[in-house]
Write a structure and sequence with these properties.
Chain A is an alpha+beta fold. The chains are: A alpha+beta, B alpha+beta. The A-B interface holds A 11, 13-14, 16-27, 29-30, 202-207, 253-256, 258, 286-287, 502-505 and B 27, 32-40, 42-43, 45, 72-74, 77-79, 82, 86-87, 89-91, 93-102, 105, 131-134.
């Protein structure tokens, strides 16, 4: 293994930072379109209603209105808006426009017009007749007999997991080992509590934005603020019934995603406007529209039951999770799975464990991917539970966690049994510095001085709290990335990657990896990313995986290039590739004291 | 209506509607460096300097700023000749997604012009109208401090 890194682990300037700081870098809405159409959505004011009729004549008669899209004139293609790998683990329960609306903010129609003002005005002129239905707001009651049924039986899951639309059940996960009943009897104390994590909005400063147009060769170009350009291409092709080979998706600079842009919501709509009218189209949401109509963090109710012995030994842990998926099942299974799979393995030595998870439909805003992806909700519950438990036992929380958490070289049964829609993958912890973290945290926040004390400062009361969590990067055996490199005559390299920099710095990180392998300065890497025509496939920016998954692809690619460089250099120097050393953009044979530079090799 | 706007020192005759807000006028006339985040004065992405004073351009009627001096982030420096503050933001890792950065840089510019040596509290106050959802505030504050030092050094060199 290499010791003296020159690029990775070094304080390098983000390669796009100066263009962003000077305002020259382009986000979606900064691209100029020639003579574009402007799109504006009309949303449901009702939580649950059937649209008995839509009359768009008044809207269409407004000067400058080009088209009005709704369920009567847009093909119904069941899909999921979740931008996940195919086949998606989320149910196919979305239509671009449906006859039923299922939450306040569900889309009813879209006006396409010559100006944003006209589009907005005309949206208000669409006559919609609603038959208001009894809504379902309480996730706890979603599976009760007689509860309103949110979706009809045409909905299905492409991966064939448990899904019972009649019961509003969007996903279910169950796992267990050991024997909880026996463990209950053997426990000195059983603590049982319920915890609720609430809705949250991603609040990326750049609102969801998309621009579409036909290029000079007749291909449909989609410039979009997305975390998942390749999934956008696939889903748009299917939903719009337009050949994938004629679609090019470009991701420019993105003003943050946090999971909110791992969702294919706007792209098919703008694409339809362009496909139908052969003109560029723009669809950019306002801030209220982002809050109301896009995705959120799923609210989760977690019920935890734990048994302990007086000496602090944990006898069992049972977790019952109810995830409110809202009106659609976007990420309903996978976020649910992660509530268990990312949380339970932390305490891997508990001999008896049980996890039940259910995702249910309600007539509330739709959940989706959101930083942490279920782990957040699960750990929110677990950490409070540990706090309560150690208080009851009179034990020290930091020391209790240190005694029980998973350690280097260890694994957990949960890893194996709980995957995303199928069984998981065995995983071992190769490095863990949680004890160091806890010790440092305890010291820095003054845990032993401050905890359990109310420190009053005027009208404010301050306290300290301590929580631990564990995450994973990438979805094993599902995620993939790829990279392609080209060498130039001055010794610079083009690095083409599908990986999606949404402000995360992945363009820079991946260039650092390539520069490290090839022993060149970072500025020798010319990065092109996230263009479905010009860069190879990548699943996109999610699961905190880009550095690990796409980074491995870049490393492999750079190593292959390095081998080719070595072979060419060997031929030039008349020596064997095995005798050569590569350093500072040059290949040398120390025995012959001869060397060639990268630019010599490529000249 | 038509009127002269003075943007980054250049006077241009621009046509705009009576109710139009400065954010849209600027963006419609090529100033894409002014970002639109919330259009209600919350996020600061659209911040520009009006006669040297930081304002959210989404809350300003274009008709109310005729002939007044408007400065966008491109007016203080560009990719080829960046301003010290822009360079400091890049050097300090203060740019994550970068959508808030133009507004942040201008807020810092206004601060350092009035107060060349601000303390942390003063920096925080000056940037309090600008949201960074990537939560990169620590690096941003560091960048303003580094920019202040570099600007002071430059002043000394000039005198």
């Amino acid at each position: 293994m290499k010791r003296n890194y020159t690029s990775i682990g070094k304080d390098k300037r983000k390669i796009d930072s100066l263009s962003l700081a000077t305002g020259s870098a382009k986000f979606v809405d900064d691209f100029a379109l020639k003579d574009p159409l402007y799109c504006k959505l009309l949303y449901s004011p009702w939580a649950f209603a059937e649209i008995t009729d839509i009359d768009d004549r008044r809207a269409r008669s407004e000067k400058g209105v080009v088209d009005v899209l709704h369920y009567k004139n847009v093909k119904a293609v069941l899909h999921t808006s979740a931008g996940q790998g195919f086949p998606e683990p989320s149910p196919y329960d979305n239509l671009l426009f449906d006859k039923k609306v299922r939450f306040v903010g569900d889309r009813v129609a879209m006006v396409i017009a010559e100006s944003p003002e006209t589009a907005e005005k005309a949206a208000g002129l669409i006559d919609v007749q609603y038959k208001v239905l009894e809504p379902l707001f309480d996730a706890e009651k979603a599976m009760d007999p007689g509860a309103p049924q949110i979706h009809d039986s045409s909905r299905y899951t492409p991966i064939g997991v448990k899904y019972e639309v009649e019961k509003n059940l969007a996903a279910e996960v169950e796992l267990g080992f050991g024997n909880i009943e026996k463990a209950e009897v053997a426990s000195d104390l059983i603590i049982e509590r319920t915890y609720k994590a609430h809705y949250a909005s991603h609040c990326a400063i750049e609102p969801h934005s998309v621009k579409t147009f036909f290029d000079e060769t007749g291909r449909l170009v989609i410039i979009t603020s997305t975390q998942v350009p390749f999934h956008v291409r696939r889903i748009v092709s299917r939903v719009c019934d337009f050949p994938l080979a004629k679609i090019r998706v470009i991701k420019p600079r993105i003003g943050g995603g946090f999971g909110g842009k791992q969702e294919v919501l706007l792209e098919p709509l703008a694409a339809l406007a362009t496909i139908r009218h052969k003109r560029p189209a723009r669809l950019v949401l306002s801030r209220p529209e982002v809050f109301q109509s896009t995705r959120t963090r799923h609210p989760v109710r977690t019920h935890l039951k734990t048994g302990v012995k007086k000496n602090g030994e944990i006898t069992f842990l049972a977790m019952d999770t109810l995830l409110n998926s809202g009106a659609y099942g976007s990420h309903a299974l996978t976020v649910l799975s992660n509530c268990g799979s990312k949380v339970l393995p932390l305490f891997n030595k508990i001999p008896n464990m049980h996890f039940t998870g259910r995702s249910v439909y309600t007539n509330l805003p739709v959940g989706g991917a959101y930083r942490g992806y279920g782990a957040t909700q699960g750990y929110f519950a677990l950490n409070q539970h540990l706090d309560i438990l150690t208080r009851e036992l009179g034990l020290d929380l930091p020391e209790f966690i240190k005694e029980h958490h998973i350690r280097e070289g260890e694994t957990s049964k949960v890893f194996e049994v709980l995957g995303e829609g199928k069984s998981g993958v065995s995983q071992y912890i190769h490095s863990c510095k949680l004890d160091t973290c806890i010790d440092l945290c305890v010291k820095e926040i003054g845990w032993y001085k401050k905890h359990d004390k109310k420190i009053r400062n005027g009208d404010k009361v301050r306290g300290v709290g301590l929580a631990v969590s564990m995450q994973g990067s990438g979805i094993p055996l599902v995620d993939m990335g790829s990279a392609r490199m080209k060498m130039n005559e001055d010794g610079s390299f083009n690095l083409d990657i599908g990986a999606t920099d949404i402000g995360t710095g992945s363009d820079t990180v991946l260039a650092q990896i390539a520069a490290e392998v090839l022993e060149v300065e970072l500025d020798k890497m010319i990065v092109l990313s996230s263009d479905t025509d010009r860069t190879p496939f990548d699943v996109g920016a999610y699961a905190s995986s880009t550095t690990y998954v796409s980074g491995r692809a870049v490393k492999k690619c750079a190593l292959k290039i390095k081998e080719q460089i070595r072979e060419v250099a060997a031929a030039m120097l008349g020596t064997s590739p095995d005798d050569l050393e590569i350093r500072n953009a040059a290949v040398s044979d120390p025995r012959l004291n001869k060397s060639v530079s990268y630019s010599d090799i490529c000249d | 209506m038509k009127a002269n706007l003075k943007i980054n020192g250049k006077i241009t005759e621009i046509e705009f509607s009576v109710k139009e807000r400065l954010l849209h006028t600027l963006r419609d006339h090529g100033h894409k460096e002014v970002k639109s985040g919330c259009e209600e004065g919350e996020c600061g992405a659209c911040l520009v300097l009006l006669n040297g004073r930081p304002v959210n351009s989404c809350l300003i009627f274009t008709a109310s700023v005729i002939n007044e001096s408007i400065l966008t982030v491109k007016g203080i420096g560009d990719l080829h000749e960046p301003h010290i503050i822009q360079q400091a933001f890049a050097d300090c890792g203060a740019v994550q997604c970068g959508f808030c950065t133009p507004g942040m840089v201008l807020a810092a510019y206004a601060l350092l012009r009035d107060n060349p040596d601000p303390d942390e509290r003063q920096i925080k106050t000056a940037l309090s109208g600008n949201l960074c959802r990537c939560t990169g505030y620590i690096k941003i504050i560091e960048a303003v401090r580094v920019a202040a030092q570099r600007l002071q050094k430059e002043d000394k060199n000039e005198t």
